[in-house]
């Protein structure tokens, strides 16, 4: 107001003022000296300062492009299963026992001797995570005395990755519709020295809601449907893994081709566990693909006891999805698992420090597991049983 009269600001002046206000931060940034002042510096912790799996995630996130981090971190749809995989560990309490002074974490699964019941699980496309890719992952796992499962989608040829280190390796196999192709790859895998074959049954294409704004996140958002309608897929669901087309017949088809132990990954129900054994599986991996396939699926630690009961000791049961601490591993062993596989956590370690990071992560988890065993009064992996935990699943 000037002299009792209202002064109007013209439209052009208002727009000019808005433009100046919007540009101000950018102009300030243009005047910023290079490099940034020291008070903005954040020290990156060293490898020997890593204390848990989550420490590796922070370094991994700082090291890799946003796309690589997102592809590793995100889960299917609303990520309810992704969150539940971690939440469910809070519903299993470890009972304190009479402490012991030493604990031995060594074990053996399907003929493979292991320094710990912890394996590096299969995860595709490790090249963007670290230049050494699957080679580096194998070197790190081998350095800790752990077994690595290499994925079908490896960025390094599997017969080259296995030569990178002396440690044992298993091979993960997605169902292939071509009989000659699957025969060829399974023969090559066994000739290369892989100790076991893991067939994944729960893989299917899905979309990640956190990625819907960006159609460049590894193709993991919903795309126009180009899938043809067939008998096993009448609704033309975009599915690049043909397990539904074959079902249990796929195990029947490949069982004669595999002379090493054969495991089925992606089992969550006792009914499927029984069928897996009936169709020749030598082992079962309870998995929901790290929450990356079906949203609102149960967590694997919840599903584990029923699967263990269903197989009745006929085959070993392993489990993955959400494991971050040695106490998590202890809980799974107490509920009947023979071993645990790491997916995201191993990728964090590889992307943070390469092979030494993977080795350090595995050693930390082994130490944490052994410490938990001591407090629970268990000296060997075989002595860990259901009496070690109190379950509060809802």
**How many helices in DSSP terms?**
14
Strand content bin? 5-15%
Strand order of the largest sheet: 4-11-10-9-8-7-6-5
The unreliable regions are: 1-7, 18-30, 217-225
Overall body shape: globular
Q: What is the share of helical residues?
A: 25-40%
The total of beta strands comes to 12
Q: The biggest beta sheet, please?
A: 8 strands, parallel
CATH architecture: Alpha-Beta Barrel
Structural class: alpha/beta
Supply the CATH class. Alpha Beta
Q: Indicate the radius of gyration in whole angstroms.
A: 25 Å
**Topology order in helix (H) and strand (E) letters:** HHHHEEEEHEHEHEHHEHEHEHEHHE
Q: Number of folding domains?
A: 1
Notes on the protein architecture:
The protein is built from 14 helices and twelve strands. The protein has helices spanning 11-30, 53-63, 66-73, 80-87, 133-143, 158-161, 179-192, 243-246, 249-254, 270-278, 300-311, 326-334, 344-353, 355-376; strands spanning 92-94, 107-109, 112-114, 118-120, 148-150, 169-173, 197-200, 262-267, 283-286, 317-320, 339-342, 389-391. It has 394 residues and is an alpha/beta fold. The protein has one domain: Aldolase class I (TIM Barrel). The strands form three sheets. The protein has an eight-stranded parallel sheet. It is globular, with a radius of gyration of 25 Å. β5, α6 and β6 form a beta-alpha-beta unit.
